[in-house]
Amino acid sequence: MLQCFLGLFSAVSLLVTVKGTNAVCPLKINPLKLVVRFNSSASADCSTSVTHQGMGWESTMGAVPLSTASLITWRVSQLIDWEIQPPFCYINYDENQCTVDLPVTIYKTPDSVSISTVNQVMMEGNQYELQCDIHNVAPAQNLTVNWYKGETLVNQTNFTDTIKRPVSKTSKLLIHPDRTDDGAQYRCETELKLGEAGPQPPPKNTSKPLIIEVHYKPKHSISTEKISQSDAVYLNCTVKANPAAVYTWHSEHLTEKISSSVIQSSTLSPGNYTCTATNNLGAESKVFIVSSAGRTTFWAIVIAGVVLAVLLIVSYVIIKIKSPPNTVI
After folding, report:
1. Cis ω on the peptide bond leading into residue 110 (within 30° of 0)?
2. What is the mean pLDDT of residues 120-149?
3. Are 146 and 132 in contact (CB under 8 A)?
């Protein structure tokens, strides 16, 4: 009875499949892994250098029956099974069997990549959210979304999904725009990083750029400016603002309403002139202090005359000292 049991155990043990690696199983797979675009063909070779009783490929697609050849090829014309199990090559030798798996990754680039925002117009200082929508991409766990402002990379998003079939994903970016961002361009770019066995460089898809509009109130660089009255000088109150600013001027010397952002100083009496730039977000004023150009010219003439008189006196004294006695100068 014991001998019968031992014989049965020995027979069962011969049928056991021993999973192994290339280092212990006398099989060589080329390539070691496959990365294939959906609906494309795929193939891999399995070879051995040892005497064997048969080798073959097991797979849900393209299985190869037992063969006594030393090289057999697994091949499919269209890889369309997203849930395909890794094909494996097996060999029977020395009354044992071992196998080597062939990892297969099926990928698909997105049907579309688009960027959007809920707010078409943004206000300076507030927080807003940009959204990148990626439609039908696989595998999502190999997807990276790169966010660009102009040509500068500002953020990246990765995913941990293990779903093999195509899915749609969304990536979001929070921004805090200021006045310098008015007209800035944002875009999102997808990148399928499939490793060394995948296509190089990795497939990329980019959205159309999103140009943001930022509204901000007027802001002068300085609040006060001194101006000397002159034909060539202007009081320039021009300031950047979105929406564009409306200008008003106030002074005891102005007799009519002025809506221009620039006025000529030579047409004004000396004094203070306040310009206010206004839009729907706020207002800011700037004071111009206009001084008389005539007074400046008068004192310049007086000082020049004094300097000239001093120079003449000094010159006379020097010549008098160097001249011989009794010389009339």
Report:
1. no
2. 96
3. no
Could you tell me where the beta strands, DSSP code E, fall in 165-270?
167-175, 185-192, 204-206, 210-211, 213-215, 224-228, 234-236, 246-250, 262-264
Return the residue matching tokens 């199990």. Answer: 85
> How would DSSP label each residue in 64-81?
EEEE-SSEEEEEES----
pLDDT of the residue at 322: 67
**Would you give the distance in Å from CA 44 to the centre of its chain?**
39
Average pLDDT over residues 106-116: 97
Higher model confidence: residue 323 or residue 225? 225
| Ramachandran angles phi, psi of 210, nearest 5° | -105, 115
Instruction: State pTM to two decimals.
Output: 0.74
End-to-end alpha carbon distance in the chain: 156
The β-bridge partners of 234 are 264
Helix (H, G, I), strand (E, B) or coil at 152: strand
pLDDT in tens, 306-326: 777 777 776 766 766 666 665
Q: Which residue has the tokens 């006196």?
A: 313
